[in-house]
Design a protein that fits this description.
The complex is a heterodimer of chains A (376) and B (407). Chain A has 376 residues and is of the alpha/beta class. Chain A has 15 helices and eight strands. Chain B has a domain of 163 residues: Rossmann fold (3-Layer(aba) Sandwich). With 407 residues, chain B is an alpha/beta fold. Chain B has 16 helices and eight strands. Classes of the chains: A alpha/beta (376), B alpha/beta (407). Chain B: This is R-phenyllactate dehydratase subunit alpha.
Chain lengths: 376, 407
């Protein structure tokens, strides 16, 4: 087995068995803090010598969560709450839950009422994030979180530790950007599912370790000759795109993901925490420089054009919109994005996805049709 | 006819006229070439009233359109434009109106700017972003962060206050009008009077029998939404209070029939089926006397900082604990014997922790509750049969409770 294949297998194992990692942390005496979608100040957790642990749902049956959520809440939150209610996440010391969409607002409140063993820490982002008052507000909110994390960990989060954490995270972001570019250049080495696993594994690993592995795979790939890709190239967009079944369908149709605008993927690492003397201000200011995310206020609706730029940059054949069922922020963006794609004559399809999906035949047919259309 | 023989004008007609006049003023302003805004129902109306900027309310329009039976047509138009039927039906109706630009059930001027406030939900932001983008008009957002604490913290007040000031300067720039502190003080005073009178009127549901059919509030509250800062609204709401006071004395009510049972109605009305819902309740002699929805538009404060807080205490902006307390208080104050809870397909925020709230409400008050699936404006998401069965079930439990059977 080549080193690239070996590394990909390792990433795949970690991405598909997050609970093993959580157990490992517990056995090592490390405290872990759950981080729910879409943006949590992970640097604070890291600076408190704890492990941030991503919770973005899972392909699980929902039963107990139905006692809290009506059926029209997205499966990411339904399955996350299910895990919390079942006690699967009891090894977490707390969970941070933002309020960036209406369903997330309810998620936090349901968690607080229903999950007794894992403390709820609210993360309140301002929507007028470009105003100085918004940055100031977020700084205060992050300070509240910092205080709570210090109590939980028993460790002080000094400015120096926070600065170091920001450096670690910005290094990771840079490595991830390099990785997605590398994956675009080596589609014959990295399948869509493997690309996803490399990114997803980062949610369950300590960042320096993940950065090191990601750097290694980038290096190993770059040492290989580039080959002409005889399949199709797409840019994906949506909240999450880690479904093995969907990614397998892309692979079967020789469709490479050359860039993404997925909240669970590139939206996490395409913007660094900016430089500021005060690290808490730097952390708060990051939100003000993010663009093109459905849960962050943007009256200019830049997202569609940002995706168009990615399509052009990577010479992609089209866009696949992976629409998380019941995700209203994404559903509002879709008609506006679609206009941008159509205006630039970029073919696109929208596939509705759900972590509760059991039948992928409709998705397969849509991808098949899209593939045929692009190939002609 | 001599003056002495004229019947006094009823508050409900005054309220209807205020609403008509509000929209007429907006049309007149538009026709004069003035800029007109589309405004979220809980955007601080004090700003527009002070500046004399005409605004109209898409939520109000969507409710009216759906109540008059055109909700489906408008929703389907937006769906054909790529909008999922998962998104709020008010938004789908409004985005359709933006596109078609006319609807015989209720027309209003097209916007030159939009004023958004997300204390009722974050979907408002997305909805207004899309209007702003599609029509290429400016958007002003006052972001009221979801309040996970029981009280509104000082840092929130500071953030909201800064946005309030910023919104004023943005509106001054857009409309060319100037903000007067003196006029602002006056508008705050009037708004307080009208809010107090409105809340005063809604309080009359505590009487048994209630002098009003609780569903009347759903009709009257449009003025509380649109025109809190106008003197005419103060007058009309004060008259409404007087009428209810008189009705209590006279033992009369706008509820037709005997009031045997008193309930809390939780959630937004299903506008397309308002009559059906009302009729079913009346068949069982049930009056709706408790709701936190109508009260949402009575915003009480004594100064600007308190105003910021008041806008953060509207029902959908508050924590579970505060939301529960509002319902428990409504049940207790109005002596509700049961509750009908609307799981509103359009409103994830209102419905997203309602199951637990329902359980806790029953625990804390001991009243029976039923839930039904519905929608504030999309007629496809409501089943008359399910609603009727649930109300029938509640009625039977309330009857048994009254006879001591279930106690």
């Amino acid at each position: 087995m080549s080193r690239v294949a070996g590394l990909l297998e390792e990433f795949g194992k970690i991405a598909s068995s997050p609970m093993n990692r959580l157990n490992e942390y517990a056995s090592e005496g490390k405290k872990a803090i759950g981080c729910m979608p879409i943006y949590c100040p992970e640097e604070l957790v890291y600076a408190a010598d704890m492990v941030p642990f991503g919770i973005w749902g899972a392909e699980k049956e929902v039963s107990q969560a139905k006692e809290y959520f009506p059926a029209f809440i997205c499966s990411i939150l339904q399955t996350s709450l299910e895990m919390g209610l079942r006690g699967d996440l009891d090894q977490l010391s707390a969970v941070m839950i933002p309020v960036l969409c209406d369903s997330l607002k309810c998620m936090g409140q349901n968690w607080k009422q229903g999950v007794k063993n894992v403390e709820f820490i609210p993360v309140i982002h301002p929507q007028n994030r470009k105003m100085e008052a918004g940055v100031e507000f977020l700084k205060t909110q992050y300070t509240n979180i910092k205080n709570r994390l210090e109590e939980i960990s028993g460790n002080e989060i000094t400015d120096d530790k926070l600065k170091a954490a920001i450096d670690v995270y910005n290094e990771h972001r840079k490595a991830m950007r390099e990785f997605v570019d590398t994956a675009a250049q080596y589609p014959h080495l990295i399948t869509p599912a493997q690309r996803s696993a490399v990114i997803k594994s980062g949610y369950f690993m300590e960042k320096p370790e993940h950065t090191k592995m990601v750097r290694e795979i980038v290096k190993e790939c770059n040492a290989q000759p580039q080959k002409e890709w005889d399949g199709l190239k797409v840019v994906t967009t949506g909240i999450i795109a880690d479904s093995p079944s969907i990614l397998k369908i892309l692979e079967e149709h020789k469709i490479a993901v050359v860039a993404d605008d997925i909240a669970h993927e590139s939206r996490q690492f395409r913007t660094d925490v900016p430089n500021c003397d005060d690290p808490m201000e730097a952390l708060a200011r990051q939100l003000s420089v993010m663009e093109g995310c459905s849960v962050l206020y943007d009256p200019d609706k830049k997202r569609g054009d940002m995706i168009v730029d990615q399509v052009k940059k990577h010479d992609a054949d089209g866009v696949i919109v992976l629409m998380t069922k019941f995700c209203d922020p994404e559903e509002y963006d879709y008609p506006i994005m679609k206009k941008s794609f159509d205006k630039h004559e970029i073919p696109s399809i929208m596939i509705e996805i759900d972590q509760q999906m059991r039948n992928y035949e409709q998705a397969r047919t849509m991808v098949q049709t899209f593939s045929d259309m692009l190939s002609n | 006819m001599s003056e002495t023989n004229e019947k006094p004008v009823k508050a409900k007609y005054l309220l209807r006229d205020i609403l008509d006049q509000h929209y007429k003023n907006a049309w007149d302003a538009k026709n004069r070439g003035e800029k007109v805004g589309w405004c979220a129902s809980n955007f601080p109306q004090e700003i527009c009233e002070t500046l004399g900027v005409p605004v109209v309310y898409p939520e109000n329009q969507a409710a009216a359109i759906s109540a008059k039976g055109a909700g489906l047509k408008m929703c389907e138009h937006s769906e054909a434009n790529g909008y999922s039927n998962d998104i709020c039906a008010y938004a789908r109706i409004s985005l359709a109106y933006m596109d078609i630009k006319e609807c015989k059930e209720m027309d209003m001027p097209q916007p030159d700017f939009v004023l958004c406030c997300n204390n009722i939900c974050n979907q408002m932001i997305k909805w207004y972003e899309n209007i702003s983008k599609e029509l290429d008009i400016p958007m002003i957002l006052i972001d009221i962060p979801y309040n996970t604490e029981f009280e509104t913290s000082d840092d929130r007040v500071k953030y909201i206050r800064a946005q309030f000031d910023h919104a004023i300067s943005q509106l001054e720039e857009i409309t060319g009008k100037t903000f007067s502190q003196e006029r602002f003080e006056e508008v705050m005073r009037i708004s307080q009077e009208s809010s107090k009178a409105w809340l005063g009127a809604t309080e009359y549901t505590k009487y048994d029998p209630s002098p009003l059919n609780g569903f009347d509030l759903f009709n009257h509250m449009a003025v509380a939404v649109c025109a809190r800062g106008k003197q005419e609204s103060v007058d009309a709401f004060q008259l409404l209070e007087k009428e209810y006071a008189q009705a209590v004395k006279d033992g009369t009510s706008t509820y037709r029939g005997e009031q045997k049972h008193r309930i809390l109605f939780e959630g937004i009305a299903c506008w397309p089926y308002l009559r059906h819902k009302l009729t079913t309740l009346m068949q069982h002699n049930i009056n709706m006397v408790g709701t936190v929805y109508a009260d949402a538009f009575g915003v009480i404060y004594n100064n600007v900082d308190e105003m910021m807080k008041a806008y953060s205490y509207v029902p959908n902006a508050v924590s579970f604990e505060r939301a529960l307390k509002m319902r428990v208080d409504a049940v207790t104050k109005n002596k509700c014997e049961g509750a009908v809870i609307h799981t509103n397909r359009s409103c994830k925020l209102w419905s997203g922790f309602m199951y637990e709230l329902d359980r806790r409400l029953r625990e804390e008050t001991g009243i029976p509750t039923v839930t039904f699936d519905g929608d504030q404006a999309d007629p496809r998401n409501f089943s008359e049969a399910q609603y009727d069965t649930r109300v029938q079930g509640l009625y039977e439990v309330m009857e048994a409770n009254k006879k001591g059977g279930n106690l």
